[in-house]
Amino acid sequence: MVNIRTRAAVLMCLAGSLLAGCAAPESHLTKREVVLPSGTTPGASPYSPGLRVGNTIYISGQIAGEAGPDIRPQTELALKKVQAIIEAAGATMASIDKCTVFLTRQTDFAGMNDVWRNAFPSNPPARSTVIVAALARPEFVIELDCIAHA
Fold it and tell me: Where in this chain does the entry annotate a coiled-coil region (predicted)?
């Protein structure tokens, strides 16, 4: 445990460095970059499909309402959107470390898992699956968000 004197000394040192203009050089700052798949433009909603911060890639929730109401095609299309973002960030599906799956129907869990097994035949990412009351629009039955590394 750090004692109060040590903590105070560290804070005074940091404050002195900042006042003296000795803040960390820019080379220590992590670059933050929006990731858009090739051929796409930012959408009307105020969010980034993907964000790369250093070697970490964050993928916003991807949906597939245009695939119809069945879970299998919606899962396939959502995963294709994830793949496009991952590849635009210079990585692959094998780079995905963690995903969260949001389903609106518990009965879709098995169908989603079947598609998931095909997308990640070995060493699948860590995953949480949550059953939710609804997604942004009623035709969406699945949404995926992921974290990957480059």
Answer: none
